[in-house]
Write a structure and sequence with these properties.
Order of helices and strands: EEHEHEHEHHHEHEHH
Helix content: 40-55%
Structural class: alpha/beta
Number of strands: 7
CATH superfamily of the largest domain: Alpha/Beta hydrolase fold, catalytic domain
CATH architecture of the largest domain: 3-Layer(aba) Sandwich
Distance between the termini: 39 Å
CATH class of the largest domain: Alpha Beta
Shape: globular
Number of helices: 9
Number of domains: 2
Length: 233
């Protein structure tokens, strides 16, 4: 059995912990504008997930469930009793899996561009992703550089697999955010919000990458939710 993996993370600020989880193929730097803004009031912990950025790949399965387990190990390492989770894309899916398994550890949940299954991704995006995955799968043995790409693409082709019914058990405050031109189907985003009791939906002008491209509006929306959309600290 693999020992707990030491994920790389960047920490800035003091106060209530706010954990940032990036998307597929990225690292913590995706959230540089969120780190700068929220570290004024929060203890921001921006994580590199397994096999991303400066975190090692390790030997355990390369799955979202494993990434959520890695996050629990980081919580223990940092002695975090609970935190606000903000996840983008696959990071939102990791945050959702973590919240389902460890609801007592999640103060509030912000899901940006998440999905419950690969079918939640629009065909114009999913078709080329699947084609690239098949190509990398066929060539991975002869081309070592494609092995990592195969794993990353595999996450988007095979995962997540989260039954909508599981969302109904969540009781923490939840904000669901998507762009008007998101790669996630609008109906799918609304399905997520509809199945989480008391959750709030915000559809912002922009594409999948609104946290980076529309950072001021995104940060303002998140800040308003954290201050008014959940019980006072």
């Amino acid at each position: 059995m693999e020992p707990d993996l030491s994920l790389y993370y960047q920490e800035q600020g003091t106060g209530e912990p706010l954990v940032l989880l990036h998307g597929n193929g990225e690292d913590h730097t995706y959230f540089r504008r969120q780190i700068e803004a929220f570290s004024r009031e929060y203890r921001v912990i921006a994580v590199d997930t397994r096999g991303h950025g400066r975190s090692p790949r390790g030997t355990a399965p390369f799955t979202l469930k494993q990434f959520a387990d890695d996050l629990m190990a980081l919580f223990r390492r940092l002695k975090l009793s609970e935190a606000v989770l903000l996840g983008f894309s696959d990071g939102a899916n990791i945050a959702l899996l973590f919240a389902i398994k460890h609801p007592e550890r999640v103060k509030a949940l912000i899901l940006n561009g998440g999905n419950l299954s690969p079918r939640g991704v629009k065909l114009r995006w999913q078709v080329p992703i699947t084609a690239a995955y098949v190509f990398s799968l066929l060539r991975a043995r002869s081309d070592p550089a494609l092995r990592r790409k195969k794993e990353l693409l595999g996450l988007m082709v095979k995962e997540p697999r989260i039954p909508a019914k599981r969302l109904e058990q969540l009781s923490m405050p939840v904000l669901v955010i998507a762009g008007t031109k998101d790669m996630i189907r609008d109906s799918h985003t609304r399905k997520i919000q509809r199945h989480i009791p008391g959750s709030v939906l915000c559809v912002m002008e922009g594409d999948h990458f609104i946290a980076a491209k529309k950072s001021e509006s995104f940060n303002r929306t998140v800040d308003r939710f954290l201050k008014n959309g959940r019980p006072s600290l």
